[in-house]
Specification:
about 85% helix, about 200 residues, single chain, mainly alpha
Length: about 200
């Protein structure tokens, strides 16, 4: 029932658009995967621009609420965002190196935590969670061990792979919509001709 509701309102026309979007994402992801350094630098610059804009907005907003007790904390956060955004925009290579260490730490800590929780709780299929956690921890260790050279391609590779997976997801969704549409069309005459 939940699956059927998920596709409510989705037409074959939507499926065509979803396929086009999915193919575009897969193609862009493949291009990004072929040029990981360029993708890494572009990602850092985009991230820096967003952090800078967010910092400016937060700082400007806080100035309008001077009587509020949390003004200092948010003012510091806004100014930090502005400084970080400017640094990432003016020094994208150094920014990529710093962000790569953060990514390595997330993989390492997240992987070890996932494996430890799976071993402690022993939920169904906990073995797969342990393997997944250990693989993530190994990836984090590998990224950290190869730093700073890994900073030249890590972020770009992750962005590219995420785009490819997201594009594949849209294509899979479109396939499901078309399959469901064919099933509903095939069943329609049977439902009309069936006795009441």
């Amino acid at each position: 029932m939940e699956t059927a509701q998920h596709f409510d309102g989705a037409q074959p026309l939507h499926a065509g658009r979803f396929v086009a979007l999915g193919i575009a994402l897969v193609v862009l992801g493949t291009i990004a995967l072929a040029a990981p350094l360029l993708t890494t630098l572009a990602s850092v610059v985009w991230y820096g621009a967003f952090v800078l804009i967010a910092g400016v907005i937060e700082t400007a907003t806080v100035f309008g609420a001077r009587g509020w007790s949390g003004v200092l904390l948010h003012l510091l956060a806004g100014i930090s965002g502005i400084v970080l955004g400017i640094l990432l925009l003016t020094h994208p290579t150094a920014g990529a190196a710093g962000l790569t260490l953060v990514v390595a730490g997330l993989f390492l800590v997240g992987g070890i935590s996932r494996a430890a929780v799976a071993i402690a709780l022993r939920f169904p299929s906990w073995g797969w969670a342990v393997v997944s956690g250990l693989v993530a921890a190994l990836v984090g260790t590998w990224i950290a061990a190869g730093w700073p050279s890994t900073s030249l391609f890590t972020i770009g590779t992750l962005v590219a792979v995420e785009m490819i997976f997201r594009g594949s997801g849209w294509i899979a969704l479109a396939t499901q919509i078309r399959r469901r549409s064919r099933t509903v069309t095939a069943e329609a005459p049977t439902l009309v001709s069936s006795p009441t």
